[in-house]
Amino acid sequence: MQTLQTNHVMNTYSRFPVKLVKGKGAYVWDDKGEKYLDFTSGIAVCNLGHVPDVVKEALQEQLEQLWHCSNLFSIPNQELLATKLVENSCFDEVFFCNSGAEANEAAIKLARKYAYDLNKSPHIVSFKQSFHGRTMATLSATGQEKIQTGFQPLVPGFSYLNYNDFADLNKLINLKPCAVILELVQGEGGVIPATQEWIDQLHAICKENEILIIVDEVQTGMGRTGKLFAYEYFNFEPDIVTLAKGLGSGFPIGAMLAKKEVAKHFSPGTHGSTFGGNPLATIAGLATVKELVETDVLQNVQKMAGILKGKIELIKESYPFIKEVRGLGFLIGIEINGEPSNVVQLAIKENLLILSAGKNTIRLLPPLTITEAEIEVFIEAFQNTLNKYKKVVG
Ligand SMILES: *Cc1c(COP(=O)(O)O)cnc(C)c1O
Q: Is 270 labeled as ligand-binding?
């Protein structure tokens, strides 16, 4: 077979020169048969590891039955997945779509419709260094200039406050927005967890002023932090939560969950999606959520995250350029003095896949199913990487 020299894929990602063709559990293989330990999980997507048997078998069975049917008909798998998500959260209703941006888009539309119906301001407040997606409304909600530059005019009605900043929260009272949207651990922005005290105050102000709280759990959801949803750590109930990445174990699916007092503002014709919640996507979601709530995967995250962080803290002493190790569960950030993408590139040579986040943070997103032996493999490869980086930076 002749392969084309030219690459016709549009240039929206700078890609590493590695062609991954196979995965199982915590490992992936490239087209040359080289094996890599994957501490990216396809950016928080393959939370159960690559090609998990339970999801594979559920998809295989569904492949023989029905691939697609429109949302003009009841879709049994969609109803089962909605029920599973509702049973394991504080929400009442679920809207299905195909990605994180679409889930946030749906949340923004629902908040706007709620405001319209109740004669409230359509304004929505988000936070600096946030990331909510690449569609026009979600990049307008994203508090990062580099995501917005070149795409003005933005969707109006968004403003940005400082994250974890108490003084800025008082501005909410004057702005009187219909909603705030936030991540509980800012992922792309540099792995920055919210503090409990700040969330307490945000929640109190929002309750008192009837401001909806939308929590973007596209990255933190589906067990990534050691609970099904990260909000469970923070002692409050959001009005809306969005999910995507880990929900389908690699099969594209997004979801917006809402409490019924908010959800009732959508009615037939107000929002929709051709593919959203189709039989294949929702069976992948159902098998994934079942695995997360019915097995000890979440306990594994809590246990292994402690072990992994402990080991990183130990080796940290040998590398003065490491400033801080932070995060929640298996969303881990290692802040360095330097360029994290250089570390990421050196790691590939050690057959280890990791990520960067923000300006100066290395991001680790191991599969939730990781074993202690695999953590040992990681530590060895990561130390080799850091030793090489140390030589480069002197
Ligand atoms: C990845 C991500 C998104 C965007 O999801 P897509 O599926 O790429 O549209 C939105 N919010 C957060 C917090 C994310 O991490």
A: no
Which CATH number is 381's domain given?
3.90.1150.10
Q: Are residues 84 and 210 located together in one domain of the fold?
A: yes
CA of 132 to the centre of ligand 1 (A): 6
Query: Is 131 within any annotated ligand binding site?
Result: yes
Cα–Cα dist 209/184, whole Å: 21
User: Do 206 and 334 belong together in one domain?
Assistant: no
188 in ligand 1 pocket by Cβ < 6 Å? yes
C-alpha span between 89 and 362 (Å, rounded): 31
Closest CA to 127 of 200, 243, 214, 45: 214
Are 157 and 276 members of one domain?
Answer: yes
Number of H helices, E strands in the chain: 14, 17
Spans of the chain, pLDDT less than 70: 1-6, 394
Per-residue pLDDT, 1 = 47
- Is residue 15 annotated as involved in ligand binding? no
What pTM was estimated for this model as a whole?
A: 0.97
Atom of ligand 1 nearest to the CA of 133: 4
Pocket test for ligand 1, best of 108, 131, 275 (most atoms within 8 A of CB): 131
Q: Which domain holds residue 331?
A: 20-52+296-393
Nearest Cα residue to atom 6 of ligand 1: 100
Domain boundary pick from 248, 272, 294: 294
- The pLDDT value recorded for residue 393 is 86
| 218 annotated as belonging to a binding site for a ligand | yes
Tally of domains in the chain: 2
* Predicted confidence (pLDDT) per residue in 197-214, tens digit: 999 999 999 999 999 999
Backbone angles phi, psi at 67, to 5 degrees: -90, -45
Residue 217 Cα: closest atom of ligand 1 = 13
Looking at residue 5, its pLDDT comes to 52
> 149: closest CA among 140, 162, 158, 161?
140
Q: Exposed/middle/buried for 91, CB within 10 Å: 0-12, 13-18, 19+?
A: buried
- Give the bridge partners for 29, in sequence order: 22, 35
Report whether residue 215 contacts ligand 1, using a CB cutoff of 6 Å.
no
99 and 167 in a single domain? The answer is yes
One domain for residues 290 and 325: no
- What is the identity of the amino acid at 231? Y
